[in-house]
Amino acid sequence: MWSRLRTRMIVVFLISLAAMLVGGSIGEQLTFREKRYYYYPEEEEMTALFLSRYAREMTQIRAAKRNERLNSLEQTGRMRLRVLDQEGNPLYRSVHASKRRENIHTLLFQMKRQSDDLNTSGGVRNLTFVYPFYLDQQPVYLVADWIGSGKPVDQGNPLMSFCSAILSFWLVFHLLTKGKLRQIAAMSRGVREIAQGRWETRVPETGDDELGILGRHINEMARKLKESREKEKRLDAQRNELITSISHDLRTPLTSIIGYLLWMRDHPDMSEAEVRRYAGIGLSKAQSMKRLIEDLFDYAKWTHHQAPIRKTRLFFNRLIEQLAEETIPLAEREQMSIRLDLCEDPLELDGDPDLLVRMLENVFHNALHHGSRPGEIVVSTAREGDTAVLKVTNMADPLPKERLSRLFDLFVTGEQSRLRGSGVGLAIVRMIAEMHGGNVTATQDRGMLMIRFRLPLLHQ
């Protein structure tokens, strides 16, 4: 997959490269100075390209036209042309050519010497070239005086051009990458602060390229680390509370049992009725301890996912009806009544019957133990989309908001003293609901406490 950051870097590099070329050109323009260069042909070039062709033309035209032709060649070729006989006398010439008699040997010697030292930057120089040929069956010489043609050329300082190009590249590259480099530096500082334990630190998430995605991932990591740390603190607090609560809940009935046993030992003359009464109280306390230990064992087992869930197809309303009928005798002893308000839909679930019964038992017993007496427990169900909703409502003492929000935590009960409950039952209720993909919440309005379950229905 083509990287957005790579694409951006390529674009930045190309822009910087263009700026370097422009900057180098500007630097060269600022240091321009004019210099003239001159072109001088060599002997072979002049005789092969020009004089041989001119001589051939002279042999092909009439004598009356030869001066006129030389004049036209002088204008186009920037040369002064003349035809000399063997004595050096001019036979034909262009308008600016010399009229004097010339020494052929001197002209040949001059042409030989000038060909050994040609320079294009030495200023204007006049060169002489001699080309022998036959004209009208007589040996003659075509002589051409070449006047150097200067051409102005602007030349800059290469060092200034190079420095200007490098500076332009650096400035443009710096300006275009400054934002990303600042973002990388901010991310580096943020990661360092997160590593030092400041989980609330956030790094910039600017852009939709890889750096922006990396920033979002770092912030998500910091958020999860913060949540993990807070969860760890809560677990530490719950662990300390667990130790204190277990010590309290086990020591209280155990103290009572020891007290009754010591009383029975120290009073051997007790009547049979007293012995049965004290033994019954001790047995009740021992059963409470056993139930608490079983609850703790189940909670620990389900917390670490060691207990398998044996799900099967069941009807939630029928399960509620059966359990409510079994709870009615206990409710009557507690001066409570149970009223069912179930929907017509049987609410088919895919769940573990044993676990769901355990969940409902704990909720009903919590309502019986902590509800106002005399009172009524209203159990209602409804279907909301693909979810089964169960509400268990009863009148109870008002609960503080903080305790109500933590009602399903371990060792939290509706009563401050916890004399009427261990605080494990409702924690098991929430765990069973979550094991079935649902949830449970508690609300209270004008003393009416409502525990609300939401469980997913079986898909047809």
Would you write up a description of this structure?
Its main location: membrane. It catalyses: ATP + protein L-histidine = ADP + protein N-phospho-L-histidine. Keywords: ATP-binding, Cell membrane, Kinase, Membrane, Nucleotide-binding, Phosphoprotein, Transferase, Transmembrane, Transmembrane helix, Two-component regulatory system. It comes from Polycladomyces zharkentensis. By secondary structure, the chain is an alpha+beta fold. It folds into 3 domains: 117 residues, 2-Layer Sandwich (Beta-Lactamase); 98 residues, Signal transduction histidine kinase, dimerisation/phosphotransfer (DHp) domain (Helix Hairpins, Orthogonal Bundle); 149 residues, Histidine kinase-like ATPase, C-terminal domain (Heat Shock Protein 90, 2-Layer Sandwich), CATH 3.30.565. It is built from 11 helices and 13 strands. The strands form 4 sheets. A 5-stranded mixed beta sheet has the order 8-10-11-13-12, covered by helices on one side. It has a 4-stranded antiparallel beta sheet with strand order 3-2-5-4, sandwiched between helices. Helix 6 packs antiparallel against helix 7, helix 8 runs parallel beside helix 9 and helix 9 runs antiparallel to helix 11. It is rod-shaped. The protein starts with a helix and ends with a strand. About 2% of the residues have low confidence.
Helices and strands, with pairings:
Layout: H1 4-30, E1 33-39, H2 43-60, H3 63-77, E2 79-84, E3 90-93, H4 104-114, E4 126-135, E5 138-147, E6 149-155, H5 158-195, H6 210-266, H7 272-303, E7 312-315, H8 316-333, E8 336-341, E9 348-351, H9 353-370, E10 375-384, E11 387-395, H10 401-405, H11 425-435, E12 439-445, E13 448-456
Helix pairs in contact: 1-5, 5-6, 6-7, 7-11, 8-9, 9-11
